[in-house]
Amino acid sequence: MRGRSVGRRILLFLAVMGPGIITGNVDNDAGGLTTYSVAGARYGLDLLWVLIPVTLLLALVQETSARMGAVTGKGLATLVREKFGLRTSVLALSLLFAGNFAVTISNFAGVAAASEILGLSRYVSVPAVAFVVWLLVSRGSYRAIERVFLALSLVYVTYIVSGLLAHPAWAEVLQALVVPRLRPDPGFLTIMIATIGTTITPWMPFYQQALVSDKGLTTAQLRYARLDTYLGALMTDTVSFFIIVSCAVQLYPRGIAVETAAQAAAALGPVAGGYATLLFAVGLLNASAMGASVVPLSTAHAVAEAFGWESTVGRRFSQAPVFIGLYTVLLALGAAAVLAPGLDLVRTMLLAQTINGILLPLILVLMLKLASDRRLMGRYANGRLANAVSWAAASLLMALTVALLISSIFFP
User: Fold this and answer.
1) 9 falls within a domain
2) Closest CA to 361 of 410, 319, 396, 411
3) How far apart are the C-alpha atoms of 325 and 382, rounded to whole Å?
């Protein structure tokens, strides 16, 4: 009987699994991989400890969005419009659109850079990725899309393998993970804040809550949805951990500075052999392709649902013209921007980082107000302790994003 009960719980979790794991893994997109690569190459293991509070903060934010989706059956954009009105919705969505568009461009740039390392022209890879993900979202069902994204999430193991093959001194790694290290260096502070900012982004709660709503999860599956969320956060920062370790062991001692994940992949070849470049390049291509598909999808979801238009994945263009149309436009423009000459990827990422730094505090405040509203959330609303912890975490995140915004302006 006990074995049957355990088996039943596992099956229930497998049925619920998806929104948290997919959202968490997609967070390791081209911008995230660049930040972790730069952190390891410039500062060795000194920033590893940041991953522990980041993982806890990420789990807290994403659990809130999953819980709101399960309780209300609605996406975050819909709740913001209903609770705070059209003006607030338009402001938030305008910033989300601009920031996500810049992130989409940077992800297609990641596709281009990774494919060229692997010997494939960007003029082939970028249109191909754009078409394939468009076809998947515009023609596929929710279940098919979820399965594809879950399968692609497994490719992130390339970074774990690369980190293990670097043969780090694990005692030193463990110490760096649990003992905070600081440097009196503005660049160190900027990368530290960026590590947090690139992990917790405004599009994530919109997307995860939309997935929970699309999948039809309710409070009956909430504990499994929470487990899915916590696993997603843990998987995300496990990958981040191994990227930092790999670059810290192989690039930092040699003084090899990098500005992008693609540069890190190329730099690893002469140092650690071609396998390291291959693993990093395959990981970057996969992460960038997932980011290029999911980030515009989260934008289309948010805009369509906020104004009451059909926003469910699996609908045809005739059923959801705004949703599919907006997704198509974002993909096409993001891919075209990368194929046009003169793209400055670093500036594009900086722009996305700046916009997200402005938007994230607003989204956190709106989320916490919604999560503590007992008329909306009933017994699943934040209690006093949960509110205290959540507001403290949100205040920390807001302070850090403001600091990142200032450092991006004065120390670009």
Assistant:
1) no
2) 396
3) 37
Domain count, the chain: 1
CATH number for the domain spanning 90: value is 1.20.1740.10
Q: In which element (H, E) is residue 356 found? A: helix 345-371
- Does the residue 4 lie in any domain? no
Closest CA to 349 of 188, 114, 109, 180: 109
Q: What is the DSSP string of 203-220?
A: HHHHHHHHHHHHHT--GG
Show the tokens assigned to 157: 């193991």
Is the pTM above the cut of 0.70?
Answer: yes
Question: Within 10 A of 26 (CB to CB), how many other CB atoms are there?
Answer: 29
Give the C-alpha separation, 92 to 254, whole Å.
44
105 sits in which H/E element: helix 86-117
pLDDT tens profile 272-315: 556 777 888 888 888 889 888 989 999 998 898 888 888 777 77
pLDDT in tens, 77-120: 999 999 999 889 898 888 888 888 888 998 898 898 889 888 89
